[in-house]
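Input/output pair, single chain:
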Amino acid sequence: MLRITKVKGNSLAKTLGLETGDTLTAFDDFPCEDELDYLYYNERSHFTLTVRDSRTGEEKKVTVEKDEGEDLGLEFAKNSKIRTCQNRCVFCFVDQMPKGMRESLYVKDDDYSMSFACGNFVTLTNLSDDGLHRIVRLGLSPLYVSVHTTNPDLRVKLLRNRHAGKILSQIDTLVKGGVCLHCQAVIVPKENDGAELERTARDLFAYYPKVRDLAFVPTGLTKYRQGLTEIPDVDKTQSEEILELADRLNAEFGVPFLLPADEYFIKAGRDFKNAHFYGDFAQIENGVGLTTKFLCDAFSALESVSAKLKKEKKSLIICGVSAQKPLEKVVDACNAKINNLQASVLSVKNEFFGETVTCTGLLTGRDVLNAVSSYKATGEAFDELVLDGNMLKEGEEVFLCGMTLSALKKAIGVKNIRVNYRGGTGLIEILSTKKDARGKKC
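Output:
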């Protein structure tokens, strides 16, 4: 249900007699669950709306006739309730988080509305048949689905949920209803890799192009795994096997359907795929194609740089261990082209989560502080520190450990900390100008 908090003046809703405080309970006799229902029907030209009067408590039906896409003119109370995960996955990253962090970091969401709106991955294990049919009815496409494996028994084992084995029938329902899917598999060595991964790939490719791709990513392992299932970290040999399987099946399928995470290329010591392979980079938030896009954007932006820095500038760029070599390629090119620039890369080991976590986005302020302090202790100097915006909470200048950007700046004793929110393009802007990637002085 949706409680109306505002009826816009001169709107169709005003004309229909809807008032602040009224509650929308149904659209076309389908129960109104959340704002997704409103967003769907708000685009339609004809439907029936069931409204509960805030004064009398009585319900009435209102027939809506409007131009397609015309806004009804309603706003609603924020509904913070989300569908949570009912699984106990053996590879769950949230279960490996230390205590004392922000409460929001411990929320295990498994909400298809967040999948549609934000690209969050969902397992579908908390959905009834009615829920699946609602997704189809509202046309929530594309969705991002954590498949992991299509082997029913193995999926039940990995997700530790007795309802997890029906994933293929759920995908069948969604696809036949016109919903497109991006899928992923978190790979647990010796469990859902090898022949099991090939089975999963073939099962899902049978639904291509409605199932658009299957990304596979290594299990994220932190040092806080006491009492949890033992999972080995992926090594060079396993990475090579994964990449060879992907290459073989993609060649057979005739399209880049299998998308290995960048980490496999790094561990195997292989070159990254080109931008064409990743298409529209639909799974970039999954660490798939992120490095390729960064490099392409950076070198493209560098081509148009001709400005000379008026004064010599030493920039120190912070990154996770896995990003060091690709980033150094960009920095070397920048130093060669931009006069008066002396940029260098400092890769930071993740002491907070453990050294098996190598991505830049999971570095904490504490890790950065320790690494930069050690760097300064060697006598090295720099004028500005460059951080990746993925280290910070969205919309706030705070790290995962709770340290603020201003606190880091004070502790390091550096005047300029510049944050890059725009990948390769943003880094070139920062290194070639005295403004950050958002155009504001730090």
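The longest strand covers residues 211-218. The first helix runs from residue 12 to 15.
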